[in-house]
């Protein structure tokens, strides 16, 4: 019996809805360069995310990369290795130096108690990640940034639509970068956005995403091409109409997983933080082999044999990537190393059947007894 479940499945609106949405593009022939759909989506997201300032981009990676460029930074950026390649690459591609801070063992976000010891006179910014939608300790990060005069850019790729203490996650730090990639809670096929505090940063982002063009005869920055096109914006308009319903479906599945797994010793589950309205983006489980009896890699293989494809998010750590040729020492971030070696992200997407969650949990619990 073929039984293939992947860790996620991209959300799509009904096809007719999308066709209706893009129909006007055939009238205007305006396909990209901040057209009608782009402007409409930007306004819709401003409302939905409850922010004053937002700039749309071609993807979440360019949101990070262009934000760092727009800030004109030089020197070292304190960040986390427990993230997707994009976070670290955005730093390195700006000729900045990543300095890796360890993570908190419960939330997997940056361990704020370890930030200050990493600050040097070359430190210019902090780039934390709201990993799995777990919100960083923004109060402490703010305090440190203020004390040392550092910029704060959040990688909020996992935190679409979340609030912390009733306030939109897009309102923390100098800027928060979102990803609207196909695999995320909310997608525009490919896409991203930056929510920012100061007007000036928005103007720079607007120009940088269009080659640094300031006026018809004036190019005053070495920008790139990072604009969101009309077809992606139209997809975003459609998907935004359904995203609340999708998050509700995710919540039900999340709760079912929790119910099935919470009493098993040796599994660390990702509890929703108090004060956070979650988007239920991921279901990471950290396996303690000495208690659970089976390692993360064994569970991964066992599920894969049954046609269930989980992901080792986030393994390997970015500070161990081959492209960095041993420039960083993974022993500097022992908690991140430990979690990366033990974590597995289970399938979670809105039209996953609750019976599939049961089957996945049954297999996960059974594999302890089938160990060869
Ligand atoms: C997805 C992701 C990104 C990059 O977003 P893209 O839209 O794929 O470019 C950056 N950071 C994290 C943590 C992500 O998960």
General description of the model:
With 372 residues, this protein is an alpha/beta fold. 37% of the residues lie in helices and 15% in strands. The chain has eleven helices and 15 strands. The strands form four sheets. It has a seven-stranded mixed β-sheet with strand order 1-9-8-5-4-2-3, with helices on both faces. A three-stranded antiparallel β-sheet has the order 7-6-13, with no helix packed on it. The chain is globular and about 70 Å long. The model has no long low-confidence stretch (mean pLDDT 97). Bound molecules: pyridoxal-5'-phosphate (PLP).
Report mean pLDDT, rounded to a whole number: 97
Instruction: Describe the largest sheet.
Output: 7 strands, mixed
Ligand inventory reads: pyridoxal-5'-phosphate
Total strands: the figure is 15
Instruction: List the secondary-structure elements in sequence, H or E.
Output: HHEHEHEEHEEEEEHEEHEEEHHHEH
Roughly what fraction of the amino acids lie in strands?
5-15%
Shape: globular
């Amino acid at each position: 019996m073929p039984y293939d479940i992947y860790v996620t499945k991209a959300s799509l609106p009904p096809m007719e809805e999308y066709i209706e949405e893009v129909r006007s593009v055939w009238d205007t022939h305006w396909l990209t360069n901040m057209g009608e759909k782009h402007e409409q989506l930007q306004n819709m997201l401003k409302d939905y995310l409850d922010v004053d300032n937002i700039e749309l981009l071609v993807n979440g990676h360019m949101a990070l990369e262009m934000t760092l460029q727009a800030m004109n930074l030089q020197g070292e950026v304190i960040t986390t290795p427990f993230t997707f390649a994009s976070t670290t690459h955005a730093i390195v591609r700006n000729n900045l130096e990543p300095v890796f801070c360890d993570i908190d063992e419960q939330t997997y976000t940056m361990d704020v108690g370890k930030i200050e010891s990493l600050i040097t006179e070359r430190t210019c910014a902090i780039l934390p990640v709201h990993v799995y939608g777990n919100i960083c300790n923004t109060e402490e990060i703010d305090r440190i940034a203020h004390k040392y005069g550092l910029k704060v850019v959040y990688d909020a790729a996992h935190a679409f639509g979340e609030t912390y203490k009733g306030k939109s996650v897009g309102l923390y730090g100098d800027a928060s970068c979102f990803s609207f990639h196909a695999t995320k809670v909310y997608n525009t096929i490919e896409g991203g956005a930056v929510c920012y505090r100061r007007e000036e940063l928005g103007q720079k982002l607007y120009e940088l995403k269009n080659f640094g063009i300031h006026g018809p005869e004036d190019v005053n920055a070495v920008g790139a091409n990072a604009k969101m096109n009309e077809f992606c914006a139209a997809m975003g308009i459609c998907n935004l109409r359904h995203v609340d319903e999708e998050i509700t479906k995710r919540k039900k599945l999340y709760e079912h997983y929790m119910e099935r797994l919470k009493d098993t010793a040796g599994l660390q589950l990702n509890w929703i933080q108090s004060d956070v309205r979650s988007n239920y983006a991921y279901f990471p489980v950290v396996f303690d082999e000495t208690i659970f009896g089976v390692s993360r890699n064994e569970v991964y293989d066992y599920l894969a044999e049954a046609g269930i494809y989980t992901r080792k998010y986030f393994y390997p750590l970015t500070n161990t990537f081959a492209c960095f040729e041993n420039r960083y020492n993974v022993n500097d971030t022992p908690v991140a190393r430990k979690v990366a070696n033990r974590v597995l992200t289970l399938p979670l997407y809105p039209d996953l059947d609750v019976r599939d969650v049961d089957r996945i949990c049954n297999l996960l619990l059974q594999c302890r007894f089938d160990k060869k």
